[in-house]
Amino acid sequence: MDGPTQPGFVTGAVNRYTSPDEDSARWIGFPFRSGDIVISSRSKTGTTWVQMICALLVFQTPDLPDSLSNLSPWVDWLIRPRSDVYAQLEAQRHRRFMKSHTPLDGLPLDPRATYIVTGRHPLDMAVSLYHQGENLNRERIRELTGQPGAGPSTHPRPSLHEWLLEWIDNEADPKESLDSLPGVMWHLNDAWRRRMESNVILVHYDDLMDDLGQEMHRLAARLGITVFEERWPALAEAATFTEMRARAANVAPDPSGILKSPSAFFRRGRSGEGVEVLSQQELRQYHSRVARMAPTDLLEWLHRESSGAGLG
User: Quick one: which of 17, 214, 222, 250 is 20 to 30 A from 257 by CA?
Assistant: First the structure.
């Protein structure tokens, strides 16, 4: 933690979440403004997509004034000093929209802010996470976060199928491994319990794929943003996979050079990839596990089918 809680600011966080790259305590004492937007998500569930949509709604033009990472910094990330991130956000005069991989129960919940939580079929999220691992420059990450260097791995990387089965069976503590299956369901359960609160919005990845324009209209309405009708076609086009990948250098979350390839961040994923990797028996095993982790209505919302192509 970089400093003491500042008096007069909402803290409200119940849990502290840490990893070698992140620390939710960086939110303690955050000076919120009226209208702030916090995007709380698990990895590879549509974070960058929703950040881009927020940018397009706030600026109402595809020609953004800066890279998406600068416009919408990742507050919990240890890659950059907290003081630098706070100063960057303090200098912004537009409506602010920030990224976090912290569940809502680890964030200060301020009534002036709106919290957007993204969800995606966990198996599809896991497939994207597996591929994302190949695109990370881990030496660069260790350098920026002050972690000790690591020698070359002597173990071959498991196949996607092997890795996915291990991911399904992993009994990790959800609060210590948020990208594990227990961690994913922990994050979503917390958001699901808060979904009726006026400043909490849930967004499903497949809804963005199936009708991007409609979801953008819904988010604009929930955020209280009015967009002139003639601007909608250009904004919706700028939020598509094709356009975001074409602008990967300015859109991918890579302000410090931790991605081997920004364009590879936008892998041409689609819903259903996780299901396709597993046998029927393995799928039953997965559904048996998640049925013990979440209520039926959340699982019904989460496990929808879609035929679209998306980001990841």
Answer: 17
Q: Which residue, 264, 270, 273, is CA-closest to 136?
A: 264
Nearest to 178 by CA among 30, 1, 44: 44
Report the chain (312 residues): mean pLDDT per 10 consecutive residues.
Answer: 35 78 94 98 92 97 94 92 96 97 96 97 91 59 62 72 95 92 97 97 95 97 97 96 81 59 54 87 96 97 66 48
| Cα gap 249→6, rounded to integer Å | 36
Provide the greatest CA pair distance for the chain.
57
Q: Is 101 a catalytic residue?
A: yes
132: CB partners within 8 A, 6+ apart: 43, 44, 265, 267, 312
Q: What are phi and psi of 74, to 5 degrees?
A: -90, 105
Single-letter amino acid code for the residue at 268: R
Q: What is the pairing mode between strands 309-311 and 268-270?
A: antiparallel
Domain boundaries, the chain: 24-150+157-311
For the chain, what's the residue count?
312
Catalytic choice (101, 121, 187, 204)? 101
- Cβ proximity of 164 and 276 under 8 Å: no
pTM, two decimals, is 0.86
**CA torsion, ordered 103, 105, 108, 111, to nearest 10 deg:** 100
